Amino acid sequence: MTSARKAYRASIIHSIGDPAEVGVEASYEYFEDGLLVVTDGRVESVGDAGVLLANLPAGTEVTEYPDALLMPGFVDTHIHYPQTGMIASYGEQLLDWLNNYTFPAENAFSDPAHAAEVAEVFLTELLRNGTTTALVFGTVHKGSVDAFFSAAEQRNLRMIAGKVLMDRNAPEYLTDTAESGYRDSRELIERWHGKGRLHYAVTPRFAPTSTDEQLAAAGQLLQEYEGLYMHTHLSENRDEVEWVKSLFPQCSGYLDVYDHYNLLSERSVFAHGIHLCDDECKRLSETGSAIAFCPTSNLFLGSGLFNLPKMEQHKVRVGLGTDVGAGTSFSILQTLNEAYKVMQLQGAKLSPFKSLYLATLGGARALRLEDRIGSFASGNEADFVVLDYNATPLMQYRMAQAKTLDERLFVLMMLGDDRTVRETFAAGESVHRRD
Ligand code: GUN
Ligand code: ZN
């Protein structure tokens, strides 16, 4: 097989460590005039264009992006594809929002044709926003996950998804049973887990909508198959937390419910985690579990302010989640914008380099995929985005005043959105180009 080598010339940045652990200077690599060399869909090398171009075999195709910043594709560690069509639904907090808007919208996914249509819209939207990997909720219908994985496979994307497990406290039209949920999950795992770039996540919606039997079955699935993810919600809303306490009085708190059923692991991702005590953070840390920080959703539903510094203190892995449709944007740049404000309201800071980390390598680490995506380490899959410094008249005007790299990064994160994404690549192939 001849190797298909291509090169991309632009300003290039990638995160190589968490600024909270290694300090800002050691957390990234930046090449003002950089070159990314991609062979057979993988990163061959990244560095200064002047050096790498001299060693590039004659005839290698080089694509140039002036006034652009090339970086690894964004990682969204929590999102619901079936909620694409009900984003921006007015006026409620979590539990009423679920009953009034979410469950009726998810009912439509009993129709595979509807699921296939929404999966296409959803993936197109992710790529328009520069997101190349996501951890994705389906609905209770196994066909919703078949539709999602089929669409992701066709685009050769690294994606993680699962069928919702929900056998109580939800409308009858949207519930499974402990037994059928287990069986359907197994079927999907056999069909999709490890196929191409796809992984399966065992997905109990949240503790209130699963019986003890169903949570036990979820734990059993995790024992039965290698490398499965566990994806659910945790401590998002105060009424929800109280409800969990009343449903599981034998447990010491919300996280303890999941712990009791062996659902905490290095591949467990919990969305939100706003109202957690120190002991819960400690337990997340010692089990290697991760939290998806979803600021646009937390503000939209009035859920509360996520305490990122506390997670850093406890060394809990954290990624960013858009949480569409409670989240109000598919854009990880817009998500960073809101994350910055959430920090400001708590008297804390979110630096541009920590933001870069969360959007890329931090997300990859939360998903235990840092050996494949999230940075331009040699051999990694070539999932990357090209961001346009001149995407809008205002951004162009503001960038002209920006003197330093951190200033430019910060402007991208405050003013950037889908318009900023000039091109998105997955496994070395262009999968979105803004024309
Ligand atoms: N908790 C349980 N289900 C959901 C959901 O669909 N969205 C959010 N934000 N929280 C949840
Ligand atoms: Zn969610």
Automatic annotation (TrEMBL):
Its EC number is 3.5.4.3. Pfam families: Amidohydro_1. Residues 70-431 form the Amidohydrolase-related domain. Binds 1 zinc ion per subunit. GO terms for molecular function: guanine deaminase activity. Belongs to the metallo-dependent hydrolases superfamily. ATZ/TRZ family. This is Guanine deaminase. It comes from Marinobacterium aestuariivivens. The lineage of its organism: Bacteria, Pseudomonadati, Pseudomonadota, Gammaproteobacteria, Oceanospirillales.
